[in-house]
Amino acid sequence: MELLTTQNAKTVKGEKRRWHTGIMYLAPGRVAGGPNVCPHADAGCQASCLFTAGRGRMDKIKKARIRKTQALFKDRKSFIASLDTDINRIQAAARRKGMRAAVRLNGTSDLPWHTAAYGKIMCRNPDVMHYDYTKDPKRMRARRPDNYHLTFSRGVNNDRICKTLLKEGHNVAVVFDKVPVGKKFWGYPVIDGDLDDLRFLDKSPCIIGLKAKGKARQDTTGFVVKTAEAIKE
User: Fold this and answer.
1) For residues 44 and 214, what is the distance between their CA atoms, to the nearest angstrom?
2) Range with the largest mean pLDDT of 37-46, 131-140, 213-222
3) Do 62 and 86 touch, CB atoms closer than 8 A?
4) Residue 60: count of CB within 10 angstroms of its CB
5) Which residues fall within 8 angstroms of residue 226, CB to CB, at 6 or more apart?
6) Cα gap 190→70, rounded to integer Å
């Protein structure tokens, strides 16, 4: 089975900047019935997960993501070997297009793919740029390969660590009902994170503004920041 997809509106936009990107979407949390692939998830992101947005709303897509996740649980070694094959496929496609290759393994998960437990994927594929969003503050500060970029994700109860990480020079992704591009939030400039998915090209520190999608548009947990309140602050 192919583990990485390039059929994503934001990754297609990234090709204008000469990057060919593959993203892996697993079944989030414990949806696949095994270990939690989103150990730092809170009530807000669980209710608003991208698993409910775009093509992810289709039963066929959901079942495919569950199968992928179960394959990871069943035989991690074989899964990682298949993942290497898929990354090579993305890289070959990028070369044919005269582009560079990028891969995001945590499309709807939050796993430490750079560690030995997950095959040190980034070290195995040094010529590919890897990037992810994470809610794990320890991973933001830990040593990681040069070809692995992380953006921290704001949740319902982690504003304090978000502000600390911004002071340390990291970028933080915030979901808004309407992205206040050109304004400031928490004193940092907001850029439009929906223009493409190439987070490793963003200036820092800044706020990566993302528009609420799927069930997030009906959020009542505080996960989605109200633009009017953000501007006022």
Assistant:
1) 13
2) 131-140
3) no
4) 8
5) 176, 177
6) 37
CA 55 to chain centre: 16
d(CA 134, CA 184): 22
Q: What is this structure's pTM?
A: 0.92
Read off the tokens for 65: 């993501």
138, amino acid identity: K
Q: Which two tokens stand for residue 125?
A: 């594929």
Starting at the edge strand found earlier in the chain, the sheet holding 19-23 runs 19-23, 100-104, 129-134, 148-153, 172-176, 207-211, 188-192, 184-185
Q: In the structure encoding, which two tokens stand for residue 205, read together? A: 């520190």
The pLDDT score that the predictor gives to residue 193 is 96
Does residue 35 have a cis bond before it (omega within 30 degrees)? no
Distance (Å, whole) CA 214 – CA 216? 5
pLDDT digits (tens, 9 = 90+) for 148-170: 999 999 999 999 999 999 999 99
What torsion do the CA atoms of 201, 142, 76, 65 make, to the nearest 10 degrees? -40
